[in-house]
């Protein structure tokens, strides 16, 4: 196994990686800077489109991968990466006005899921499904910091992270109608000693063996977790503290791309904010789910 920097750019808060099959490049966001980024791992060059808000996820459309579904603070937008033009598709309800979007992902049928947070408030965020016509349907409440999403290989389980609560949840999932029910706590980090000193769970993906890969903000690592036993199978140490998210990519989906963030005042982590490639893991992921209108 090796951990290698693949981006020249160091992001303030790199997040939401999504591998684009059509270009063999990696989309991600630099959240508080407001950039939607596209990295060519072969060259290390990152192109960026700057938007007027907090960018929180980016997912190509299945019908046209040059069009991107993005969330920007309180808005859902369609972005043309080549021209930089975007249009507003949906907005959060007016109350509370301080709520904003965070991480997001699509299920196997191309439905987008995303959640919210309310800064400085506990359990005021929600989990939403974006339905036909870009209507936001609230699915789960009492979320503090909505984050990583992943579906089991049979699409019968939705895994979901509330970072501030330090919990990974599971839902029974119906792929046909997009319903998520029977919310359960899969792992409560606060009750397990092996999760001490690992910061908070952040972004997440799943491999072809059905195991979860979870980035840990403040924990300097990515964990491979067995959702059946909830045990830690593997710990990938990273050279910076704030590890934000991960996804599989590359021609064979056997490279784990990991986004990170810088930390104010830390001078001994010169690679913080880079995108890393973790190789020779002995497993791989699946093609990502793009958005279907």
UniProtKB/TrEMBL annotation:
The keyword Cytoplasm applies. Residues 13-262 form the SMP-30/Gluconolactonase/LRE-like region domain. GO terms for molecular function: calcium ion binding; gluconolactonase activity. A divalent metal cation binds at residues 15, 147, 202. InterPro entries: 6-blade_b-propeller_TolB-like, SGL, SMP-30. It is an enzyme of class 3 (hydrolase). One of its GO terms (cellular component) is cytoplasm. The active site is at 202 (proton donor/acceptor). It is found in: Cytoplasm. Binds 1 divalent metal cation per subunit. Substrate binds at residues 100, 102, 120. Keywords: Calcium, Cytoplasm, Hydrolase, Metal-binding, Zinc. It catalyses: D-glucono-1,5-lactone + H2O = D-gluconate + H(+). Its cofactor is Mg(2+); Mn(2+); Zn(2+); Ca(2+). GO terms for biological process: L-ascorbic acid biosynthetic process. Belongs to the SMP-30/CGR1 family. PANTHER family: REGUCALCIN (PTHR10907). This is Regucalcin. It comes from Araneus ventricosus (Orbweaver spider).
């Amino acid at each position: 196994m090796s951990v290698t920097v693949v981006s020249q750019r160091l992001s303030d808060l790199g997040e939401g990686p999504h591998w684009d099959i059509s270009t063999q490049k990696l989309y991600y966001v630099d959240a508080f800077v407001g950039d939607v980024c596209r990295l060519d791992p072969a060259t290390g060059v990152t192109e960026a489109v700057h938007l007027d808000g907090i960018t929180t996820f980016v997912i190509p459309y299945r019908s046209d991968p040059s069009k991107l579904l993005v969330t920007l603070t309180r808005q859902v937008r369609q972005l043309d990466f080549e021209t930089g033009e975007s249009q507003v598709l949906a907005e959060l309800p007016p109350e509370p006005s301080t709520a904003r979007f965070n991480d997001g992902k699509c299920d196997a049928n191309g439905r987008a899921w995303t959640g919210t947070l309310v800064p400085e408030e506990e359990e005021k965020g929600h989990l939403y499904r974006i339905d036909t016509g870009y209507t936001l349907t609230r699915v789960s409440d009492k979320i503090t910091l909505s984050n990583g999403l992943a579906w089991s290989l049979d699409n019968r389980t939705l895994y979901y992270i509330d970072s501030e609560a330090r919990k990974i949840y599971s839902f029974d999932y119906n792929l046909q109608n997009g319903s998520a029910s029977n919310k359960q706590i899969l792992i409560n980090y606060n009750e397990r000693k092996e999760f001490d000193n690992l910061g908070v769970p952040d972004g997440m993906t799943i491999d072809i063996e059905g195991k979860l890969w979870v980035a840990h903000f403040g924990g300097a690592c990515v964990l491979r977790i067995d959702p059946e036993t909830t045990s830690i199978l593997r710990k990938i140490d990273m050279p910076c503290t704030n590890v934000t998210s991960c996804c599989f990519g590359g021609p064979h989906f056997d490279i784990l791309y990991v986004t990170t963030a810088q930390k104010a005042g830390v001078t001994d982590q010169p690679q913080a904010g880079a995108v890393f490639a973790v190789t020779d893991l002995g497993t791989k992921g699946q093609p990502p789910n793009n958005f279907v209108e």
